[in-house]
Design a protein that fits this description.
With about 775 residues, the chain is α+β, with helices and mostly antiparallel strands. Helix content is about 40%, strand content about 25%. The strands form 8 sheets. A 6-stranded mixed β-sheet has the order 12-11-10-9-13-16, sandwiched between helices. It has a 5-stranded mixed β-barrel with strand order 1-2-3-8-7. The longest helix has 27 residues. It is globular, with a radius of gyration of 30 Å. This is DNA polymerase.
Length: about 775
């Protein structure tokens, strides 16, 4: 064996008991410039912590149960001030048994943290790593035993990826598997070989067993770092795993022929040694891309302008038909889905996002969601270095709830000039300014005489804390990312910063304490209310505010140039005033920063439907972008998936007219009359489709049957072979006999569309501008 130093990026992490019983072995697979690297760290011990005063009790109880543990004095304490001791175990199963035995009798801390994660977080390793040890060359990878690891934060890997997609029937019986990427372009299809002129390979399989065996060969021969797909963990790999178990096959998809492992609980967790499996839907959501639905068909249409080869509601039925009658078409469909996934990942830079997210948080590449886990990764090692163990859920002993963000009552109406001022990262700025931090709260309560006052009896240390420093680092890094044109890094940092309050306000986080979260939100309330008063003292009207944004009315006669100058002047005044106020009241530096975000001209704030009260989180405004007017809809029908294309088009047309310089009320009459007449002539028939996701299995809908489910059940009466599965987008319409699955032969109930789609939108506008000329009769 030789000694060398390698640089790589962690793809997977596992832990298992060593054969020698001397400890736990940690296994990390890396991607590197030299190829795959398998890293083994032997003789590790898993740990949890208990109050030191319970040492004798715990030792006696474990000895009686013949459970071996090593107790070590550690210079750490609980938030209560109680000294703690570490309980170390040579294997994970013994730790779990000890936890189960002791938990009814004493507090146990950090027992839920996997040692393979703890090992990395305590060394501040976040993806990139330097590794050295005893090196040997194996078939297809480098093995490093007795490894030592050190963080390499600057290392960014080059990843090879393979897109996988399966086709099956409603019971999960496999038909085919598509594999596209990393030089591979193949569909594995069960059936008799057929001649074809398709521009890709079809590998014909005898049966499911043959298909799964070949699939394993293809994956291992192609040897990708990443496998991607659409709902690939919850569906594709879960179905593959279920079928393999039913057929008595082990799926050795991992490197070194290691097996796939799937566990289910609150979410499906997949382990594939040597590779990462990344789901497109989860990655899109975590990168904060917003779509009305996340089906591959919809995202492909919106992002790529392309469609799947099988569309409409009977997709599963058509897949079954093609498998039985037209396997070549099914192969093309299967392959196309793989291609669409690859192109979406490339177009939206989802690989880049996953990498920088790991570099910032230390979470696995495939671990989407997980904001609580990301916070723990970032905060726990810092807390340990301050001499504290993490608390358990509810250790604070408090039962009151912290309020949400501050939302002002709106003043409905049509306005000529509205300025929107927005506090930049308000909650992180509050946390940084007022030193709001779990450790800071404990230290502040210990020494309140010079602490910073929060809310609900919270006080925070001025000097002993971690989050303000972390936020400062993230803020500077994000600005650097913007300056150097690294949009994915900037976006990932923004998401992490915005999640910090959400984590501290989540009861599922061990650091949740309502004194922390309320000290953030109530400070936000104070800041918004005070800022409003300052603006109104300057003679302006504030018509609305939401969490971190304030909407200011300025004179109708002002030009856009004058409005923009007022916006800049207001931000300068507010920032300077807050800086002075916080310095004077608290002796602190203010990191609050309000920005002039938008000038809307015109702007419309509706009333709550059927009331005179102003709406919240719903408005329409016009901006000028690239010298052209553009409508911005917030919370309105045009951005909601439960409204038809007709309603969205109708609303847009009304607002274009309402916002035009030559507007008069008769123009609304004309539009309403025109749309109503065209609707009844069938001119909008292709725009009357509702699209709704099937949230449960069809059999689970028993009492409350929503329209799209009514449509499915009605359709199945005459079409028993019609198959749908949970998660599928259902297209339905209203006909004279109620909700029905959409097809080109539907006889529409146009009056329902008038009542449900046109009338509410028109009434919202006309009632808010207080004109009595437009009446319901116009629709009939």
């Amino acid at each position: 064996m030789t000694q060398a130093i390698y640089q790589g990026f962690i793809l997977s992490r596992q832990q298992y008991s060593s054969k020698s019983r001397r400890g736990i072995t940690l296994c990390y697979w890396l991607v590197s410039e030299q190829g795959p690297i398998k890293v083994l760290v032997e003789d590790q011990q898993a740990v949890f912590f208990i109050p030191q005063e319970k040492h004798d009790f715990a030792k006696a109880a474990l000895n009686k149960a013949n459970l071996s543990a090593n107790f070590k004095v550690v210079d750490m304490q609980h938030f209560s001030g109680a000294a703690c001791i570490g309980c170390y175990f040579n294997d994970v199963s013994t730790l779990y048994k000890a936890r189960t035995l002791l938990e009814p009798h004493l507090s146990i801390y950090e027992a839920d943290i996997r040692h393979s994660d703890r090992f990395l977080m305590e060394r501040f390793i976040k993806g990139g790593v330097w590794v050295t040890g005893d090196v040997s060359q194996k078939n297809g990878f480098i093995l490093i035993n007795n490894a030592k690891l050190k963080a390499s934060p600057e290392y960014t890997p080059t990843l090879t990826s393979l897109s996988l997609d399966i086709e099956c029937n409603g019971e999960g019986v496999l038909f085919s598997v598509g594999l596209v990427g990393n030089g591979l372009d193949t569909v594995l299809m069960i059936g008799e070989p057929q001649q074809h002129n398709q521009p890709f390979n079809i590998d014909w399989c005898f049966d499911e067993i043959n298909l799964l065996q070949k699939l394993q060969q293809y994956i291992n021969n192609n040897d990708p770092d990443i496998i991607v797909g659409w709902n690939v963990i919850e569906f594709d790999f879960s179905v593959l795993n279920t079928r393999a178990e039913a057929l008595g096959i082990t799926l050795n998809f991992g490197r070194e022929q290691q097996s796939l492992n799937i566990t289910t609980g609150h979410y499906t967790r997949l382990s594939l040694p040597g590779r990462s499996v990344i789901d497109g839907i989860d990655t899109l959501k975590n990168a904060t891309y917003h779509f009305d639905n996340y089906s591959l068909a919809n995202i492909s249409h919106k992002v790529l302008g392309e469609s799947k080869l099988i569309q409409a509601n009977n997709r599963l039925s058509e897949i079954i038909r093609q498998f039985n009658e037209d396997k070549l078409s099914l192969a093309a469909y299967n392959r196309q889905d793989c291609i669409l996934v690859n192109r979406i990942f490339t177009q939206l830079q989802l690989f880049e996002f996953a990498i920088v997210r790991t570099q910032l948080t230390g979470l696995e590449l495939e671990r989407m969601g997980g904001s609580v886990a990301a916070f723990t990764n970032l905060y726990l090692p810092l807390l340990h270095r301050s001499g504290y163990v993490a608390p358990n859920l509810g250790d604070h002993g408090l039962s009151f709830e912290s309020p949400g963000g501050y939302v002002m009552e709106s003043v409905p109406g049509l306005y000529k000039n509205i300025l929107v001022l927005d506090f930049k990262s308000l909650y992180p700025s509050i946390m940084r300014t007022f030193c709001i931090d779990p450790l800071g709260l404990i230290k502040g309560l210990d020494s309140p005489e010079n602490a910073i006052e929060g809310f609900n009896e919270a006080v925070f240390s001025r000097n002993e804390h971690h989050l303000p420093k972390l936020i400062k680092h993230l803020t500077h890094t994000r600005q650097k990312a913007k300056d150097t044109e690294q949009p994915m890094l900037s976006q990932a940092i923004k998401i992490i910063m915005n999640s910090l309050y959400g984590v501290l306000g989540s009861k599922g986080c061990r650091f949740y304490d309502p004194r922390l979260s309320s000290s953030i939100t109530l400070r936000g309330h104070e800041i918004m209310q005070t800022t409003r008063k300052w603006i109104e003292k300057l003679g302006y009207d504030v018509i609305y505010g939401d969490t971190d944004s304030i909407f200011v009315k300025v004179d109708d006669q002002l030009t856009a140039l004058s409005c923009n100058q007022i916006g800049k002047d207001l931000t300068l005044y507010i920032n300077n005033t807050w800086s002075h106020d916080i310095k004077e009241r608290f002796g602190l530096t203010s990191y609050l920063e309000i920005e002039f975000e938008t000038h809307y001209s015109p702007f419309f704030m509706p009333t709550i439907r059927g009331k005179k009260t102003g709406s919240k989180k719903r408005y329409v405004g016009q901006i000028i972008k690239n010298s052209m007017p553009k409508l911005i809809f917030k919370g309105m029908e045009t951005v909601r998936s439960d409204w038809t294309e007709l309603a969205q088009e109708f609303q847009t047309e009304l607002f274009k007219t309402l916002f035009s310089d030559s507007f008069n009320i008769e123009q609304l009459h004309v539009i309403i009359d025109s749309y109503t007449k065209k609707l009844h002539t069938g001119a909008f028939d292709n725009k009357l489709i509702y699209r709704k996701r099937l949230g449960q299995n069809l059999s689970d809908y028993i009492k409350n049957i929503p329209p799209h489910v009514q449509a499915i059940k009605k359709h199945k009466v005459n079409n028993p072979d019609f198959e749908v599965r949970r998660g599928q987008i259902i297209e339905y319409v209203y006909t004279l006999t109620g909700a029905e699955i959409y097809n080109t032969f539907n006889k529409f109930n146009y009056e329902i569309y008038v009542r449900k789609q046109l009338e509410p939108i028109a009434e919202m506008i006309t009632s808010s501008i207080d004109d009595s000329h437009v009446q319901k009769e116009l629709f009939y």
